[in-house]
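--- STAGE predict ---
source: upstream dedup step, 1 unique chain passed
mode: sequence only
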Amino acid sequence: MRLRAAGLRGPAAPRVRAETVREALLPALGLALTLTYGAFVGWVYATRPQSIADVATRAQVAAGVYHVDEARFASGLDLFRRESFAAARDEWARADPAQRDARTQFYIAYSYYRQGWGRFHHDDALYQQGLAAVERAQRASADAPWASDDPDLKLRTPAELRAEIEEGLRTELADFNPLRMMEARK
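--- STAGE serialize ---
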């Protein structure tokens, strides 16, 4: 009490408390860092990214901040309209590397459909790839149904596109009808 009245403080009391806090905080901080690092290693092992860019993309998806690169999407759309389907798919793959955007996956599927469509026969390999892409589009739009507002497309929803692709994969007697040449691409 006399020390406080004289304006002096005892140096031993605050140091003991700081050391006690440090002794309790340091192991807790070490444990937290170890668990965080372990979770990161487990996440990398589970997702198996191929590159640092892939790690960044998957981290954005996990954090809920993933967005499609709109400039690359627009570039792909321009190529699609010029019927450069393979180049358009390459642009869209760069725009949506996580394959999580319904619109991008729909256009990728549509490009496979258009490239595989033929008056005399349909390319089954391209149609199979289109079917896989339309399934990704449907998974991405499962919570909120999505429809295209593009006036150049006759098929507006992933469900319509899927039905058209599945119909093209089936071989029926009507496929050998010569009037099939008059059928228009959608």
